[in-house]
Amino acid sequence: MKAISSMATRLLLADLMTAAAEAGLGEVETESVGGVDAAERVAAGEEFDLVFLADGALAKLADGGHVTPASVTPLVLSQVAVAVPSDADTPAAATTDPAFESVAGVRDAIRAATKIGYSTGPSGTALVRMLEDWGLTAEVGGRLVQARPGIPVAQLLADGEVDLGFQQLSELVGRPGVTVLGVMPQGCAIDTVFSGAVATTSAEPDAAAVILSFLGTDAARDIARSHSFAVPPTR
To answer: DSSP labels for 93-149?
Structure first.
């Protein structure tokens, strides 16, 4: 079977699909690309069995008849974190800097940064909207650097292209050359629910649905937590 996902869940899905295969549910080849690119390819009719994207993107694909609406299953909650480059090669861990525990602290850091990295997809859109709401677009707009499709913000930080970065915590933890300062605090938190769905182009929709069901089990959720994702709220 074939699946497509955004970059935010690529490492998690690799482990989840390994677990599914070990449980005897079959092999799934997952391609991870930029979220916008993934949604466009599914909408264009490219054949996949499973699609893993942010909730909003999947809702649009369901409305367009590209994924089965009843199959849409929330899998993980991803929190956007703040990070800076690190001189060390030590993989980044999830930490909390008191300076970033308030909205004012995040806003001050943005105003002081030389280059600000942010991702494509829903988290990047939310960050840009937040800057507009704060009236900072004119002040910092020229310093915003959107990561190129398929390139994580963590790489921009490690390569010195930006000195402040915003991306899902799961994409930052474990990356060398990055120091995570904490998740976005209450009042400006950017949280995204990533879900899975069976594509209407699937030649094996029943088998795909079984794998999707497995991804909602306690064992799968433990794997998600190990990748710094949280369990999404119950609908």
So the answer is: -----GGGSSHHHHHHHHHH-SSEEE-SSHHHHHHHHHHHHTT-HHHHGGGEEEPPT
Three-state SS for 150-187 is CCCHHHHHHCCCCCEEEEEHHHHCCCCCEEEEEECCCC
Cα gap 218→45, rounded to integer Å: 33
In whole angstroms, give the CA distance from residue 219 to residue 3. Answer: 20
Q: Which candidate, 145, 149, 126, 200, places its Cα nearest to that of 36?
A: 149
Instruction: Tell me the whole-structure pTM to 2 decimals.
Output: 0.77
Could you tell me the sign of the dihedral formed by the alpha carbons of 187, 160, 148, 74, in that order?
A: negative
Quote the tokens at residue 119.
Answer: 């991702």
Cα-based distances in Å from 62 to 56, 58, 59, 66, 192:
10, 6, 5, 6, 18
Task: Show the tokens assigned to 229.
Answer: 């994702």
The Cα 43–Cα 30 span in angstroms is 17
Yes or no: say if 72 and 58 are a contact pair by the CB < 8 Å rule. yes
Residues 78-131 have pLDDT tens digits of 899 999 998 655 555 555 566 667 899 899 999 999 999 998 777 888 999 999
Angle (deg, nearest 10), helices 35-43 and 55-63:
10
